[in-house]
């Protein structure tokens, strides 16, 4: 059973602000929310220990680094009971950056980032076809990402 977190308004404000700008200093956060930098530090540490905050990530334009193909793969499993085994095998493929267990047509739905179509073909043909438990896949190539964002957990404006 999950433990109920006791998050207050300040916790949500900190989370929202840092989701928008993880580089903001504790001092600047403190000024914005009228508390000390020490208070911000303690709150962030509490959020990390509770597993709410799981580090920070650098937002990189992957196209600038030569990753030109984003695709989504719907995975049909032979049996839904194979999900955990197949998910662990898919985790070994570094180009698969996100995987979800889903309802609907697919058992699993994943996002793949590749340098080119040749790399995508290798993943689809060589890597996925070797995984026992996958019945078949359906691939969708993204032509453009219109936007990507975090959920708004607290209105700060």
TrEMBL record:
GO terms for biological process: response to amino acid. This is Lrp/AsnC ligand binding domain-containing protein. Pfam families: AsnC_trans_reg (PF01037), HTH_24 (PF13412). Keywords: DNA-binding, Transcription, Transcription regulation. PROSITE patterns: HTH_ASNC_2. The lineage of its organism: Bacteria, Pseudomonadati, Bacteroidota, Chitinophagia, Chitinophagales. SMART domains: HTH_ASNC. InterPro entries: AsnC-type_HTH_dom (IPR000485), Tscrpt_reg_AsnC-like (IPR019888), Tscrpt_reg_AsnC/Lrp_C (IPR019887). GO terms for molecular function: sequence-specific DNA binding. GO terms for cellular component: cytosol. It comes from Pinibacter aurantiacus. Residues 7-68 form the HTH asnC-type domain.
